[in-house]
Write a structure and sequence with these properties.
97 residues, three-stranded parallel beta sheet, 5 strands, globular
């Protein structure tokens, strides 16, 4: 069993934003993602509507930059499928496949 202060289920833009801020705040942080960093965004060949990103950016490259930025501050990424969450327990638990 591994203990983390912050477990984020889903490595899309929201997940990696949360990971970045959690890790920067000094929390031990992990992102659990089923597919690849970026989630569905990583499969997008052209992103035209994301703030601060050049029109036509590749989703995979943007996702990689988000992952690298979060990991620079200490967040970890694990590619796995979360099958259950024990949110009523203390400590809270996540079970992956």
């Amino acid at each position: 069993m591994k203990l983390f202060d912050l477990v984020i289920v889903g490595g899309g833009p929201g997940g990696y934003t949360a990971a970045l801020y959690g890790a920067r705040a000094g929390l031990s942080t992990i992102v659990l993602e089923k597919l690849s960093p970026g989630g569905q965004m990583a499969m997008t060949t052209q992103i035209d509507n994301y703030p601060g990103v050049q029109p036509g950016a590749d989703g995979y490259m943007l996702a990689e930059r988000m992952r690298q930025e979060a990991e620079k501050f200490g967040a970890k990424t694990e590619l796995t499928e979360v099958v259950s969450l024990g949110l009523e327990e203390s400590p809270k638990r996540s079970q992956a496949d």
